[in-house]
From TrEMBL, chain A:
The keyword Acetylation does not apply. Residues 165-292 form the TFIID subunit TAF5 NTD2 domain. InterPro entries: LisH (IPR006594), TFIID_NTD2 (IPR007582), TFIID_NTD2_sf (IPR037264), WD40/YVTN_repeat-like_dom_sf (IPR015943), WD40_PAC1 (IPR020472), WD40_repeat_CS (IPR019775), WD40_repeat_dom_sf (IPR036322), WD40_rpt (IPR001680). This is Transcription initiation factor TFIID subunit 5. The gene is TAF5. The lineage of its organism: Eukaryota, Metazoa, Chordata, Craniata, Vertebrata. WD repeats lie at residues 421-462, 494-529, 536-577, 578-619, 620-653, 662-694. Residues 339-350 have a biased composition (Acidic residues).
UniProtKB/TrEMBL annotation, chain B:
One of its GO terms (biological process) is RNA polymerase II preinitiation complex assembly. Residues 189-202 have a biased composition (Basic and acidic residues). Its main location: nucleus. This is Transcription initiation factor TFIID subunit 6. InterPro entries: Histone-fold (IPR009072), TAF6 (IPR037796), TAF6_C (IPR011442), TAF6_C_sf (IPR046344), TAF_TATA-bd_Histone-like_dom (IPR004823). Residues 12-78 form the TATA box binding protein associated factor (TAF) histone-like fold domain. Belongs to the TAF6 family. Residues 142-202, 604-624 are annotated as: Disordered. Keywords: Nucleus, Transcription, Transcription regulation. GO terms for molecular function: protein heterodimerization activity; RNA polymerase II general transcription initiation factor activity; transcription coactivator activity. It is found in: Nucleus. SUPFAM superfamilies: Histone-fold.
């Protein structure tokens, strides 16, 4: 579909601009998000003296792009910003060009359903403003007026400049409300979705046009009607009562720059359209045209519960098209390990004098994994680091441990070992365990990172260079000898950050540790020398989370700047930048096959990104609060997410569908983890509990027919209570992290909070 | 649409007065009303914006409380200089002031003298972060260990016992957790679904092997011979959160124990059992309501039983009665409801046997003790009216023909008990003046002595009010010499030898009765310092007098004081208690130092009198009682094993 293509294009531009800005260190989020939308009025506002700065920035961006030979982006940007090659093109011709490139005037066109429909779905971010532009001459005058002093915001806000009688707004809204309340039940739930975005945009229009009192009244009158999960956003809206406030308000920009996506069945949509046309209710119709993206589907209208399950995000539901791309959720086979594994294993077993009975079994396991999973990505889809000998040894250990693994089931629950951080004085902000559960790392609000050894093996530093030169490099125990016995201790403290450490992650080989902090950096620490190796700069704002790839080498970070960055440990600049979230990225996670990255955000969506292409391949909506934890099932097929609303949602990654909802927690869920075989999901929360859920049953209970798979409209079974296997209260200790050991013992961690 | 209307999210704005105040604080004098209004809107908006950002930091800091540093970080996010120096751990101490028609909240910045900071010793370095592991769950069952929350919270136990119908709600989340928590019963853990239909088991709690072992150890230690073990066991009973399931067994143990030992007149064991009751009641996680039907009879038995020991003439069963009476009063306070009417029923029982002419002195004593512990109101309504009758009875025994020694002792005890409890109540209720004759008219035989007691009580109360400052000061400074100086009035410093009392530096000093030290003419007092370290019986030292320190009092009249008047001084003036032992898990043997003042003239009646030492607060009572018992028994128990110190 054209819309999707354009969207991607647009995203690319945005990304480029962001690179530029973050590189020269003068990052400004507002400029970022506003630039792509600066279509016609960017050109218009060029002449006033106040816009000189803006133009300069644009030129600088263009220069940068040229320097980097990104000609395509240059063209796009130029087209968008209305700058010609010699930069003194007349603004009039620019806007005319934009107008001709855009869609025909909306209000004039009263065409049939199909043409309307096509327009709705064709409308793309890049031409939004131009469609707003065509809606009335009064609006244009106003825009010109305001353009004098605040060109930047004005560009973004210009769409709100349409002049309607402010007194009529409540009437319009009420009229629609009455209509929707009077329609058939089956349509009512669907059409009610319109209320919230309509309310928001009407309010913003009122505020923008300086009808302060009317706006206040409008808000007071109708804010109570909105769904309770929009409360947070409403609070932000309510604080915004003046036009000046709109400048620089991020939430406002989100509403403006992104279309609110609604899924409505064709029948319901026709009803709505007919009503609005009959009433000549252009005000509302304009808003729907400009700010809403109505994703129309054929079939039964959805029920209230179905809608409620999916809605709640900042910008409505994900478009159906957004979740159509194929996701290779299967696991990578591990052929390289097999050969050395068997060899090593044999040796080890021979040494131990064990009978070789086990060997055929091993082989069968190996052959099973050799079969190519149809859903798995190609082995070399993304380049993965080669395995070192130590990695292979670790894999062997892993295999051995796995044979001793306890089979979990609802009748056979895991034991939970809780690691309490004492005397942390509310300062524990992040925890991670190594995969083999030998080390624990904690990030603290006092900027430190502490590493503990939970095995009798103490933490030792490598000797200094001078001492190392004295070591006999040929000796067998050289790895032992390079360690400095004098430095052995149970814990080590890593100093370097200058702000609270919010994210922490061990590398799979236990040689490195990543930490992300409020100071905007991600640091890579060596666990051999216990020193900082690299500080990755790029996020200029707090970095909320960072996570190593399951294969090492790559890592992902995400933070307040709404961009997730993919890094490789040996590059000081990011390899990929994933832009698209409308609010802070709060948590990040690699897919087990390392080909995808999931990010959870404060805009209440989860996005899945393709590491290879950088595209967003899934937008999952349904949470009603910022998402704070993510977990992939070990087979890569499912995902769980937990948010501040205390609910865990289960997702089918392949279909991009919500498949379950686990209610029970009463506070933010900070930790989620599947058991090693994926039978049990453990969730840890701020409400001082660890809960265990039967995920096998949860995934079994979902019946997926073709229709639901195609439309994504799923009936969620209300079975949280049946799926809950156990609740374990801690003693005033919020659960911050969970980890299943290789033998399926559950480790939990949190700070005791007397 | 949302069904329930949310509270209105109207736009709250700062008052314009705040703007004016802020403007004045930076030197802008006259601010137009309009500018104020404009400013306040702008400022309110910015503050809200910053608060929203600060919330993000709170969430990511995994906290529920917004801190000043969150605000700082939010400001930093907006490229605003943070408010340096606004560090506050708990709350920001805003002060409120109003005046001139304006109201202000301000942050008080104290002037701090730098030399003060330099000269004060450094505060203790806060403990470093450490990691501690425990089992939250073992194969789906949460073990009852101190690291885990109690399986059944006290509120729920209470709800269960008071409103049994409300608790069981099938399918409730709480229900599930409890079942899992109590899942020592394996059947219960598995059959969750049947659990919804199943009746709640009342007393058939099956104990795990560990719990059985624990129960055995604890009960053995509680009635065993080793005092150190007993202290640990009682400590465990008083603090352990996982005893809920063992409670029925403990209560049966106690009630059976009392039944048997009352018959056998085994005073020591009765005391141990009462201490167990005390420990159970002290446990914050237990709610005893369900077991009162076993515990109350046991306790009441220990109060009013005719005979509690083999030799009533010498043994100090009085202390046990006092202690049990206090327990009774405590349980009345805690558990008495309108439905069970414990207090009124208990009061009725006591009064009935007290009024009975044939009641023996021991029971009589117990009844009075039990009643008077219930509070001044009970004393006023039930005891004071009967003082005359009781006085006559005492007079008959003490002045009449010698009947038996036991009766005489009993009458003495009853008399002192009445004096002690009534004096304070009368001092509070009866108007001045205290006329000896008037008292005799009102209260009969006991009148004159009561009068002098009341006078003393009044003086004491007055002094107490005056000396609050002084005593608290001395308490905070744990210098050993203070133990002595507190009890005598100033000036006698030269005659003491503080070096005799060796007090470890780690001791904290607690004055139980701040007012007692200073009396109009205090008799010369004796101090006995008993060092009781676990197991090692230092009782011999007390006996041979090496640790009995005599201190001359300041006033000249020292020796002559009657037994009756001496009773009032029979109070533990200072109790020293080593704090460290209890808190650190009892790895070190518990050390107790008890300083007791005794009248010199009453040294002959040391055994009997000291038993009446009334502990002043319920928390210290076991120790004081212990002191009483020890002193009592060391006099005649030859082997010392029955009551080791």
């Amino acid at each position: 579909m054209a819309a999707v293509q354009d969207g991607q294009l647009n995203m690319e531009v945005e990304k480029d601009i962001k690179t530029e800005i973050t590189n020269d260190g003068s990052g400004n989020i507002n400029a970022n998000s506003s630039s792509p939308g600066s279509t016609s009025s960017g050109g218009k506002s060029k002449s006033p003296a106040g816009s000189g700065e803006d133009q300069q920035t644009l030129l600088a961006v263009l220069q940068f792009l040229k320097r980097n030979k990104l000609t395509e982006s240059v063209d796009i940007l130029r087209r968008e910003a209305g700058l010609s090659a010699d930069a003194d093109d007349s603004p009039v011709s620019d806007s005319a060009g934009a107008g001709s490139g855009g869609v025909p005037n909306v209000s004039a066109d009263g065409g049939d359903a199909n043409s309307l429909l096509s327009r709705v779905s064709i409308a793309t971010p890049s031409i939004e403003t131009s469609s707003g532009f065509g809606c009335g001459s009064g609006g244009r005058a106003c825009r010109l007026q305001c353009g004098e002093d605040q060109p930047d915001v004005n560009v973004v806000l210009s769409a709100y400049s349409q002049q309607g009688d402010p007194v009529l707004y409540p009437l319009y809204y009420n009229g629609l409300k009455k209509f929707i309340e009077s329609v058939l039940d089956c349509h009512r739930a669907e059409l009610s979705q319109v209320f919230y975005p309509l309310f928001v945009h009407m309010y913003l229009e009122l505020v923008y046009n300086n009808h302060e009192n009317e706006a206040k009244q409008f808000f007071e009158k109708f804010s109570g009607d909105q769904e309770c999960y929009y409360e947070e956003d409403l609070r932000i809206l309510s604080s915004m009562s003046k036009k000046e406030h709109m400048k620089g308000n991020e939430t406002m920009l989100d509403f403006r720059t992104s279309k609110f996506v609604l899924r409505i069945s064709r029948d319901s949509y026709q009803l709505l359209k007919r009503h609005l046309q009959e009433r000549q209710n252009n005000q509302i119709w304009n808003i729907i045209q400009e700010h809403l993206y109505i994703d129309i589907f054929d079939g039964m209208p959805r029920s209230k519960s179905q809608i409620d399950a999916m809605s709640g995000s900042l910008a409505g539901e994900g478009k159906r098209d957004a979740n159509k791309a194929k996701v290779f959720y299967g696991l990578l086979k591990e052929p390289e390990i097999e050969v050395p594994l068997d060899d090593e294993d044999e040796e080890a077993e021979n040494e131990e004098g064990k009978p070789k009975k086990k060997k055929p079994k091993k082989d069968s396991m190996g052959s099973k994994s050799k079969k190519q999973d149809p859903n798995a990505p190609q082995q070399t889809r993304i380049p993965l680091p080669e395995l070192k000998d130590s990695d292979k040894l670790d894999k062997i250990m892993n295999m051995k441990e796995a044979t001793k693994k306890i089979r979990l089931s609802p009748d056979n629950l895991p034991s939970i070992c809780f690691y309490s951080f004492l005397n942390a004085y509310q300062g524990l902000t992040a925890v991670d365990f190594t995969d083999d559960s030998s080390l624990i790392a904690g990030g603290f609000a006092d900027s430190t990172v502490r590493v503990w050894s939970v095995t009798p093996k103490k933490l030792r530093r490598v000797k200094s260079a001078a001492d190392l030169s004295n070591i006999d490099k040929e000796s067998d125990d050289v790895l032992e000898r390079i360690m400095d016995e004098k430095t052995a201790s149970e814990s080590k403290i890593l100093y370097g950050h200058s702000g609270p450490v919010y994210g922490i992650s061990f590398s799979p080989d236990r040689n490195y540790l990543l930490s992300s902090s409020e100071d905007g950096t991600v640091r890579l620490w060596s666990l051999q020398t216990f020193t900082c190796l690299v500080g990755y700069k790029g996020h200029n704002y707090p970095v909320w989370d960072t996570q190593f790839s399951p294969y090492g080498y790559y890592f992902i970070s995400g933070g307040h700047d709404r961009v997730a960055r993919l890094w490789a440990t040996d590059h000081y600049q990011p390899l990929r930048m994933f832009a698209g979230h409308l609010a802070d990225i709060t948590c990040t996670l690699f897919h087990p096959n390392s080909n995808y990255v999931a990010t959870g955000s404060a805009d209440r969506t989860i996005r899945l990104w393709d590491v290879l292409t950088g595209n967003c391949v899934r937008i999952l909506t349904g949470h009603k609060g910022p998402i704070h934890s993510l977990a992939f099932s070990p087979n890569g097929k499912f995902m769980a997410s937990g948010a501040t609303d205390g609910r865990v949602l289960l997702w089918d990654v392949g279909h991009g569908l919500m498949v379950g909802e686990l209610k029970g927690h009463s506070d933010t869920i900070y930790a989620l983890k599947f058991s090693r075989d994926g039978e049990i999901l453990a969730s840890g929360s701020m409400d001082n509990t660890v809960k265990l859920w039967d995920t096998l049953k949860a995934f079994d209970d979902v019946e997926l027919d073709d229709f639901t798979a195609a439309t994504g409209h799923i009936h969620l079974p209300e079975n949280s209570q049946e799926l809950l296997l156990g609740t374990y209260m801690t003693k005033s200790t919020p659960v911050i992290h969970l980890h299943f050991t290789r033998r399926n013992l559950l480790l939990a961690a949190g700070a005791y909070n007397p | 649409m949302a069904e329930e209307r949310r509270p209105k999210q109207c736009t709250v704005v700062l008052p314009t007065e705040s703007m004016k105040a802020m403007a004045e604080s930076i030197g802008v004098g006259q601010l137009q009303e309009e500018s104020c209004a404009a400013l306040s809107e702008e400022v309110s908006y910015r503050i809200k914006e910053i608060a929203q950002d600060a919330l993000k930091f709170m969430h990511h800091g995994k906290r529920r409380k917004l801190t000043t540093s969150d605000i700082d970080h939010a400001l930093k996010l907006k490229n605003v200089e943070p408010l340096y120096g606004f560090q506050s751990q708990e709350f920001i101490p805003f002060r409120f002031a109003s005046g001139g028609g304006r109201e202000l909240h301000f942050y008080e910045e104290k002037e701090v003298d730098l030399s003060d900071i330099i000269n004060t010793p450094l505060p203790r370095v806060p403990l470093d972060v450490s990691l501690k592991a425990h089992w939250l769950s073992i194969e789906g069952v949460q073990p009852a260990i101190p690291e885990n929350p109690p399986p059944a919270p006290k509120e729920q136990q209470k709800a269960e016992s008071t409103e049994p119908l409300k608790v069981v709600k099938p399918g409730q989340e709480e229900e599930g957790s409890i079942q899992k928590g109590q899942g020592a019963i394996s059947a219960e853990a598995k059959g969750k679904k049947e659990g919804l239909m199943r009746m709640k088991p009342r007393s058939t709690h099956e104990l795990s092997v560990e719990q059985q072992l624990y129960y055995k150890e604890i009960t053995e230690a509680c009635v065993g011979s080793c005092e150190a073990k007993r202290a640990e066991a009682l400590q465990s009973i008083a603090t352990d959160p996982g005893l809920y399931q063992m409670l029925p067994r403990f209560s049966t143990f106690i009630s059976e124990g009392v039944r048997v030992n009352v018959v056998q007149n085994n005073l020591a064991l009765l005391i141990y059992l009462m201490r167990m009751v005390k420990a159970l009641m002290d446990n914050p996680t237990l709610y005893l309501e369900k077991y009162l039907h076993e515990l109350i009879p046991a306790v009441v038995t220990c109060i009013v039983s005719k005979q509690l020991c083999l030799r009533p003439d010498v043994d100090n069963h009085w202390a046990l009665r006092d202690f049990a009476a206090r327990l009774m009063a405590q349980s009345c306070k805690t558990f008495s409801t309108t439905t069970n009417n414990i207090q009124s029923r208990i009061t009725k029982t006591f009064t009935k046997s007290w009024l009975d002419e044939k009641t023996q002195w021991t029971t009589r004593y117990g009844c009075i003790a039990g009643l008077s512990e219930l509070g001044p109101d009970v004393i006023k309504t039930l005891i004071l009216p009967r003082l005359t009758v009781e006085g006559a009875r005492i007079k008959a025994v003490s002045e009449g023909p010698v009947v038996s020694n036991i009766d005489k002792i009993g009458a003495d005890h009853v008399q002192s008990l009445l004096l002690k409890h009534c004096a304070s109540v009368i001092a509070k209720t009866r108007p001045l003046p205290d006329n000896m004759e008037q008292y005799r008219a009102d209260y009969g035989y006991l009148g004159p002595t009561l009068c002098s007691h009341v006078v003393k009580a009044r003086a004491q109360a007055a002094l107490q009010a005056q000396q609050v400052n002084r005593t608290t000061l001395t308490i905070t400074q744990p210098r050993p010499t203070l133990t002595v100086s507190q009890s005598g009035i100033g000036g006698s410093g030269g005659s003491r030898s503080p070096s005799i009392i060796k007090v470890p530096s780690s001791l904290t000093l607690m004055s139980t009765r701040p007012g007692t030290p200073t009396q109009p003419s205090p008799p010369a007092t004796k101090y006995i310092v008993m060092a009781t370290s676990a197991g090692a019986s230092s009782t011999q030292q007390v006996l041979d007098g090496s640790l009995v320190i005599t201190l001359s009092s300041s006033s000249g009249s020292s020796v002559t004081s009657t037994v009756a008047s001496a009773t009032s001084t029979l109070q533990p003036l200072v109790k020293l208690e080593s704090r460290g032992a209890g808190g650190l898990g009892g790895s070190r043997p518990l050390q107790k130092y008890i300083v007791v003042s005794l009248p010199t003239s009453a040294s002959s009646s040391l055994e009997s009198k000291s038993g009446m030492l009334p502990p002043s607060s319920s928390s210290t009572s076991p120790i004081s009682l212990e002191a009483g018992m020890k002193m009592d028994h060391t006099g005649y128990v030859p082997n010392g094993t029955l009551l080791p110190i």
